[in-house]
């Protein structure tokens, strides 16, 4: 890479990483993040709802759980976001040139999904995206190699990266599906290469723990996700589609989506020319990215779909956009394009600043239920704040109970659903050394059903705590009324933000 562009890329990665580190320390962990801590706490070859790689990532960056805090939990996502910026630049540099590579890095950094959602928050996407991009890089080397040796090596590594992508998130299988479709339709000669079949075997071996685990557990993961995307008895739900569509626009940065739309119009306008002259490297990347976007959008017509489900698919459009911008960028357009890029980066930064300000300082509940026993329900702004303060208040209650012999050291906290169980485990049970037991339905408990194997079962004479936040409020007697002689409300703890009560915690024993 040209020295000037290499320096610019390094500065972009460094500055964006510093910004991510800052924001990572301003917010507590979200529902999903604290839940994935359980994957590190009890490693396995697969888990109820996802493969295991996110747990291994957390264990590595928390030094095998010897250094556990908000920052160390998110450190893996931050590190991989920096690495991913470099990988996508390498992909585009191989396809086009140094300038296009730097443009791709800017687009990646401007994307809210790649820069914040998977770049700060610790999610399966955080590590899956790394292997996804590594696989795309190998595909570029395969379809247009410098020599036979490079092609063979890339084919072998492709099996590794796709296997690891699947071990991070099951949608990694779209990489093989897209690559196979490209080979059958455009480059069948690669099917004669022995390395292609070895690559398939490598992926199969890497993915095999998921299959074996599901065989042992009655295919619970596949049944769970099957129910989430099943279209049986599902009528068309336009509002779900609109939620997914505008969610994807927001997650990818609206200004970036305008570029994508302009690019799409340019392709459609000269469809015959572009389809006949599409470069191999671009074609194979689009085969891997577009299907997951279209399928997620189609499912959203019937089921509620989370916008980040299709997130990795947009890397293909991002790469195409970078190459296209570089080709169309004439000298007189440089100043305008620079303003657009700055605007995209400012939008992403402003979005995060606004989110942090609302979460930390908004006086009251901006959305959701604003009073009653379910105060804060459907208000996502309280998901990442308040738990550290609650833990301090709960510690006072427990210390008083232990001192007055109302409770014993080993009395557990009962949970009935994976959220808020994740927050209770991470912020309360873990630092205070309190056992946590999941008592409820498997589809509500998820991984917490397996965590029960790490604690002693509750005995008929034992006592227990039950914590119910008002935004996910369930009365304890509705769940455990027949299991205990009495259930008493111990205390109601209020969470205040800018002087307004935004949530309550009902502590029972």
TrEMBL record:
One of its GO terms (molecular function) is glycosyltransferase activity. The chain crosses the membrane at residues 9-27, 71-92, 99-121, 127-143, 155-182, 194-215, 252-271, 283-302, 308-325, 345-363. Pfam families: PMT_2. Keywords: Cell membrane, Glycosyltransferase, Membrane, Transferase, Transmembrane, Transmembrane helix. It is an enzyme of class 2 (transferase). It is a multi-pass membrane protein. It is found in: Cell membrane. Its EC number is 2.4.-.-. Residues 49-213 form the Glycosyltransferase RgtA/B/C/D-like domain. This is Glycosyltransferase family 39 protein.
């Amino acid at each position: 890479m040209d020295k000037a562009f290499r320096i610019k890329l390094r500065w972009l990665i460094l500055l964006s990483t510093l910004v991510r580190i800052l924001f990572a320390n301003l917010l507590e962990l979200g529902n999903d993040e604290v839940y994935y801590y359980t994957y590190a706490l009890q490693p396995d070859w697969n888990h109820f709802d996802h493969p295991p790689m996110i747990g291994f990532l957390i264990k590595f960056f928390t030094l095998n759980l010897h250094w556990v805090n908000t920052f160390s939990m998110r450190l893996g996502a931050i590190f991989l976001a920096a690495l991913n910026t470099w990988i996508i630049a390498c992909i585009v540099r191989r396809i086009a040139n140094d300038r296009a590579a730097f443009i791709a890095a800017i687009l990646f950094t401007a994307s809210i999904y790649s820069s914040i959602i998977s770049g700060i928050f610790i999610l399966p996407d955080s590590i899956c995206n790394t292997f996804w991009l590594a696989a795309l890089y190998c595909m570029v080397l395969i379809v247009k190699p410098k020599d036979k040796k490079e092609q063979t090596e890339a084919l072998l590594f492709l099996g590794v990266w796709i296997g690891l992508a699947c071990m991070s998130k099951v949608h990694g299988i779209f990489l093989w599906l897209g690559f196979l479709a490209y080979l059958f339709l455009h480059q069948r000669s690669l099917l004669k290469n022995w390395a292609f079949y070895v690559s398939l075997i490598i992926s199969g071996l890497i993915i095999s723990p998921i299959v074996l685990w599901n065989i042992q557990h009655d295919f619970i993961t596949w049944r769970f996700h099957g129910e989430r995307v099943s279209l049986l008895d599902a009528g068309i739900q336009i509002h779900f589609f609109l939620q997914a569509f505008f969610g994807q626009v927001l997650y990818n940065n609206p200004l970036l989506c305008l570029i994508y739309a302009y690019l799409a119009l340019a392709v459609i306008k000269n469809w015959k020319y572009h389809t006949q002259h599409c470069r191999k490297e671009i074609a194979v990347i689009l085969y891997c990215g577009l299907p997951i976007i279209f399928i997620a959008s189609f499912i959203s017509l019937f089921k509620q779909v989370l916008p980040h489900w299709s997130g990795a698919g947009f890397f293909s459009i991002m790469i195409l956009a970078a190459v296209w911008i570089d080709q169309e960028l004439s000298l007189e357009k440089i100043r305008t394009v620079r303003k657009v890029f700055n605007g995209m980066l400012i939008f992403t930064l402003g979005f995060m600043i606004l989110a942090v300000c609302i979460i930390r300082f908004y006086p009251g509940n901006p959305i959701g239920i604003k009073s009653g026993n379910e105060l804060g329900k459907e208000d996502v702004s309280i998901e990442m704040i308040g738990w550290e303060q609650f833990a301090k208040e709960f510690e006072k209650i427990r210390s008083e109970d232990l001192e007055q012999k109302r409770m014993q050291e080993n009395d557990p906290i009962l949970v009935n659903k994976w959220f808020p169980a994740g927050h209770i485990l991470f912020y309360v049970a873990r630092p205070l050394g309190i056992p946590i037991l999941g008592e409820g339905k498997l589809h509500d408990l998820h991984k917490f059903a397996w965590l029960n194997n790490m604690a002693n079962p509750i005995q008929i004479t034992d006592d227990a705590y039950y914590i119910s936040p008002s935004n996910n409020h369930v009365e304890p007697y509705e769940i455990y009324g027949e299991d205990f002689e009495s259930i008493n409300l111990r205390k109601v703890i209020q969470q205040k933000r800018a002087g307004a009560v935004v949530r309550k915690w009902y502590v029972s024993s």
